[in-house]
Design brief:
alpha/beta, Rossmann fold, 7-stranded parallel beta sheet, 6-stranded parallel beta sheet, 17 helices, binds uridine-5'-diphosphate
């Protein structure tokens, strides 16, 4: 029997490409062929990475920004262009696959690309959403559009009153995704989530594949009876998880240039002594916030590895941190690194993170406790799960101006460097490995889904 062929379409951002690539590799592992498609610019960057396993091939479509998105680009305009232009160019890509006799059994697409389902449908191909955030956040958005919108919007009026949604932990105003705030500059993404649910609920057997696992979010996965959430995560390179493919040591789709020397530097540090700090591929800390952070690191006196992405422009004097020399004596500042490699290094003791879902699940898989420093989107909710549900970290409290002061930073660092949170984090590391190994919940879930899709097509 010929292997089933799937098309996987992903948003051209690092936080989408990383889990999608792992998802593609998992599909290949269960006997499928996958064409991985993203926008041209990201595709070109990925092509510089190492070659993919057999069964996985790459394709691209134009989002209208083939030279890359310029700094300061209005993201709302970009999302409109991506939908308009991407719908045409992705449709051409599917048509040329079909003309070449390649039968695409299903199209998978990641969060914020609901229009891909419409393109697939116009070619008569069924599609499935791959949700790359926790099930809790998926449920939350569902509730927002189905009966709880007024309640959720009223949290701003009563910030001290938690809202209780079925199957979710009690959430304060500061825990809910920022896009639900009418003042949030990215709340234009809300209609995209709404569209995801419209498409889902039109299906005869509505199902979402989610980058989570049964033991991590047992209640959230089952909270909503209108659709099924299938945990297929965590989507992390095999070498750091189940070890089935020891050569799979990186996502293989870095859009940024990594620096070198930091692993050798980590090798020289004592076990669990290093503070690792990174805020993902989008967020940037303000200059005053970086100064507070730097002061906290100097006062803590521990070794640290801090990722500060550079814009590619020459560094200006005003960007320089005031205590640069003391920082250099203690730690290393790099523009990008292989994060899972760092988190799985024995010398890393804690992770100061913006709580993007990939960073959060990587911290769990590597058993590293976190200082949660959420910025926007789902990060607030992820931080809530980390601190109050899994208890693998503590969240910083900003002052009235929204600044996390150095004393507060140091308080959090001392707390997470203790044993209790590390023990909790290691519990989830073991559960994550259990979920993805052969016969584990995520492995079984994915195999069952692929078998079903294959049988339905026969
Ligand atoms: N990452 C990395 N090196 C870095 C910083 C980030 O490899 O120096 C990876 C990280 O491992 C994660 C992704 O970039 O897989 C960031 O995704 P996340 O969801 O955490 O945040 P986003 O970038 O979407 O805000």
């Amino acid at each position: 029997m010929a292997p089933p062929h799937f098309l996987l379409v992903t948003f051209p951002g690092q936080g989408h490409i990383n889990p999608s690539l792992q998802f593609a590799k998992r599909l290949v592992r269960v006997g499928a062929h996958v064409t991985f498609a993203t926008a041209i610019r990201a595709h070109l960057r990925m092509a510089e990475s190492k070659s993919p396993p057999e069964g996985l091939s790459f394709a691209s479509f134009s989002d209208g920004y083939d030279e890359g998105v310029k700094e300061g680009q209005d993201i709302e305009v970009y999302m409109d262009d991506l939908k308009r232009r991407g719908s045409e160019t992705l449709s051409d890509l599917i048509a040329s696959n079909l003309e070449n006799g390649r039968r695409l059994l299903r199209v998978f697409y990641t969060t914020v690309l609901p229009w891909v389902a419409d393109v697939a449908r116009s070619h008569g191909i069924p599609s499935t959403l791959v949700w790359i955030q926790p099930a809790t956040v998926l449920d939350f958005y569902y509730y927002y559009f189905h009966g709880y919108g007024d309640l959720i919007r009223s949290t701003g009026d009563n910030p001290s009153l938690p809202i209780q949604l079925p199957g979710l932990p009690p959430l304060m105003a500061s825990d809910i995704p920022s896009f639900c705030n009418s003042k949030d500059e990215y709340n234009f993404t809300l209609p995209l989530f709404q569209r995801h649910f419209e498409i889902l609920l039109e299906e005869a057997n509505p199902r979402v594949l989610a980058n989570t696992f049964d033991a991590l979010e047992p209640d959230a996965i089952r909270a909503i009876d209108k659709f099924k959430v299938i945990g297929i995560g965590p989507l992390i390179p095999s070498a750091f998880l189940d070890g089935q493919d020891p050569s799979d040591t990186s996502f293989g789709g870095d859009l940024f240039k990594s620096s070198s020397g930091y692993i050798e530097w980590l090798d020289m540090k004592p076990k669990a002594s290093v503070i690792y700090l990174s805020f993902g591929s989008i967020s940037v800390l303000s200059k005053p916030q970086k100064e507070e952070m730097a002061r906290a690191l100097v006062e803590a006196g521990r070794p640290f590895l801090w990722v500060i992405r550079t814009s590619g422009k020459e560094e200006r004097d005003e960007d320089r941190l005031s205590c640069e020399e003391e920082l250099e004596n203690l730690g290393m500042i790099v523009p990008w690194c292989s994060q899972v490699e760092v988190l799985s290094h024995h010398s890393v003791g804690c992770f100061v993170t913006h709580c993007g879902w990939n960073s959060t699940s990587e911290s769990l898989v590597c058993g590293v406790p976190v200082v949660a420093f959420p910025q926007w989107g789902d990060q607030q909710t992820n931080a809530k799960l980390v601190t109050d549900v899994w208890r693998t970290g503590v969240k910083v409290t900003p002052n009235e101006q929204g600044l996390v002061e150095s004393d507060e930073m140091r308080r959090c660092l001392e707390l997470v460097m203790g044993d209790e949170m590390r023990r909790n984090a290691q519990k989830f590391r073991d559960l994550a490995r259990e979920a993805v190994k052969e016969g584990g919940s995520s492995d079984k879930n994915l195999r069952a889904f692929v078998d079903e899709v294959r049988e339905a097509s026969e």
